[in-house]
Amino acid sequence: MDQLSAMQAFRRVVDHGGFSAAAQQAGVSHTVLSRQVKNLERHLGTQLLNRTTRRLQLTEAGALFHRHCVQILEQMQAMNLELSEHQQQPTGTLRLGVATAFGELELGHWLPDFIERHQRLQVELHCSDRFIDLLEEDIDVCLRVTDHLPDSSLVARKLAVSTRVLVAAPSYLERHGTPTTPDALLAHPLLGYSRLPQPQRLQLTGSTGENHEVLMPRRLGANSPMALRAAAIGGLGIASFDRFIVHDALRDGRLVPLLADWSQPSRTLYAVYPQSRHVAPKVRALLEYVQAYYARPRWEP
Fold this sequence. Notes:
Helix content is about 40%, strand content about 25%. It starts with a helix and ends in an 8-residue tail after the last helix. The longest helix is centred in the N-terminal third of the chain and has 26 residues, at about 60-85. The radius of gyration is 25 Å and the shape is elongated. Helix 1 (about 5-15) packs across helix 2 (about 20-25). It has a 5-stranded mixed sheet with strand order 4-3-5-15-6. Strands 11-8-12-7-13 form a 5-stranded mixed sheet. It has helices spanning about 5-15, 20-25, 30-45, 60-85, 100-105, 105-115, 170-175, 225-235, 245-250, 280-295; strands spanning about 50, 55-60, 90-100, 120-125, 140-145, 155-160, 165-170, 190-195, 200-205, 210-215, 220, 240, 255, 260-265, 265-275. The chain is α/β, with parallel strands linked by helices. It has 10 helices and 15 strands. A hairpin with a 4-residue loop joins strand 1 and strand 2.
């Protein structure tokens, strides 16, 4: 019996909560994993898992073994990384997760240069507007613009502040007038991002610190920031965006900012990755690159 492979199989089953999920993640059959765990139990002379049709539960011996198993496997991984780090260039496949808008608008500015610098590295992009499970979907690093990070088991490295801006197309303002106060927004439709709990709500803070909450009528809702951006440029109404989404449209005049004396809660661009005692060279290379790139403000007027 290959005890190391059996230990890896056992840990994978426990970490993923069952044989089916672990088998899918590892790309092997349920039967193979089950046989490895049974052989491991036979080799150790004790039962590690209680199996029922509905759930999988560690025995007392299984919990003890799992704790040592994790330590041993991580130490072996750390040993292999430490032996190769000094001479190893980033290699293999880097799986990078980004939101759709960020992928379309930002990656073209820096990803070609990053890839050019690391010729032995392949990058696989996963673009999605939902919060993904990095471990379940095997993502190495995720770049997220957000105001909250719900998963505390991940490492989050702050890269940049993303301010929000209220905008409209000149054609819309010519037809409907330009609001100059928060209350004036009530006469205008908001193009709302439907993934938000309250797509029509705006929170505004004035230059002297006063807060104002506005519930605007909604003309169009969409689950895609890029679709809302196109609608705003097309003159359908007023919209609120992370500045990086409309930075170019503001610069060339397709959109104009509104209520310049009022601000909205900003968000943060993070690089998020699973906790590990030793970060893989390919992950470290990306983290160092984006940290340096976004150290300089990129989206401010």
